[in-house]
Design brief:
By secondary structure, this protein is α+β, with helices and mostly antiparallel strands. The strands form two sheets. Strands 6, 7, 8, 9, 10 and 11 form a six-stranded antiparallel β-sheet that branches. A five-stranded antiparallel β-sheet has the order 1-5-4-3-2, sandwiched between helices. Strand 9 and strand 10 form a beta hairpin. The longest helix has 15 residues. It is elongated and about 80 Å long. The N and C termini lie far apart (111 Å).
Length: 322
């Protein structure tokens, strides 16, 4: 007779564990395995975060950032994964701003390494979202174990970069863009905005200015020349003697540009005895040679008769210009 029966113990056979298979992603960049998705949605942890569904990664970021604000830490984007064929994002990971460790930037001119305060502690907190077949995003990995003290003061927690809201406002973004178009560098833009902000708002960093300007430039990729044409059209309305001509490629993209205004035309009529042409100037961003026509007035001062932006310094380019 079985000894377990003598002791009055009821033996229950172990149930087989249910195995959930994930075939990672399909060709469209979506997670494969509906059993896993339904199981994740049902397996909600104590905070109710696991399995939450969002319409977009931006909505997920806003939720997790608010969660971090209430729990005393900041967040940042760790990595994004895109499909190699469609270039469509199917997964994104958000982490605590103390995740990992800072890398050494390099040596200075004196030979020693730059010393910079390292605020990261290698925190393993993670918030990962993945895209479903229906286009929604759901939380499939969530870890909330920090290896550092959380910021419980409401004033100090707002000092985390992810909780700074000033640089995200439309007015601040517009001002950053206008200052950048006027020629100011991000470090100077930061100084201007920080002098204008209210005392209870966090200071804007140069990195935040760079991120806002980079996002703004993405909207004008391939359309930069439209701004140049618009600029000359607005000037032509004020100066009827302004003249500009554009040389286009076969596909309609701009190749060369030549312009002069009424003041330059009057200067050329009066002081055209000597004309100097030079192509040693280069624009910084697009690497286009700038070719000004320069003369000398009766005071011995240099004056500009006109200027051109050229595609290159080949013979056919100069033939078009002259």
């Amino acid at each position: 007779m079985d000894k377990s029966m003598d002791l009055g113990i009821t033996v229950v056979e172990d149930e087989p564990c249910k195995t959930l298979l994930i075939n990672d992603i399909n060709a469209n960049g979506y997670l494969v395995g509906s059993d896993f998705e339904s199981e994740v949605r049902d397996d909600v942890d104590d905070n109710g975060v696991m399995g939450m569904v969002f319409d977009s990664p931006e909505d997920a970021y806003a939720f997790y950032n608010q969660y971090a604000l209430l729990h005393g830490f900041g967040i940042r984007i760790y990595d994004s994964y895109k499909n190699r064929v469609t270039n469509e994002m199917y997964r994104r990971i958000y982490v605590c701003n103390k995740e990992g460790f800072k890398k050494t930037k390099g040596e200075t001119s004196k030979g020693n390494f730059k010393s910079r305060r390292d605020t990261r502690t290698g925190c393993d907190t993670k918030f990962r979202i993945s895209k479903r077949k229906d286009g929604k995003w759901f939380v499939d990995i969530f870890s909330d174990e920090h290896n550092h003290e959380l910021t419980m003061s409401s004033n100090k927690v707002m000092q985390h970069r992810s909780h700074g809201k000033l640089h995200r406002t439309l007015a601040c973004k517009t001002l950053m863009t206008e200052l950048s178009q006027s020629g100011l560098r991000p470090c100077n833009i930061r100084r201007v905005i920080n002098t204008m902000k209210s005392p209870h708002e966090n200071e804007v960093t140069s990195k935040q200015c760079i991120d806002v300007l980079a996002e703004s430039r993405k909207q004008y990729i391939g359309k930069e020349f439209y701004g140049v044409i618009k600029f000359f059209q607005e000037k032509s309305a004020k100066d009827p003697n302004l003249h500009f001509i554009v040389d286009l490629c076969e596909d309609g993209s701009p190749r060369n540009l030549f312009s002069f205004d009424g003041r330059s035309r009057d200067s050329y009529i009066n002081f055209r005895d000597v004309v100097v042409f030079d192509v040693t100037y280069m624009t910084n961003r697009f690497k286009l040679p700038f070719a000004p026509f320069i003369g000398v007035n009766h005071h011995g001062q240099s004056i500009i008769f006109g200027g051109a932006l050229l595609e290159n310094e080949k013979q056919e380019t100069f033939e078009w210009l002259f």
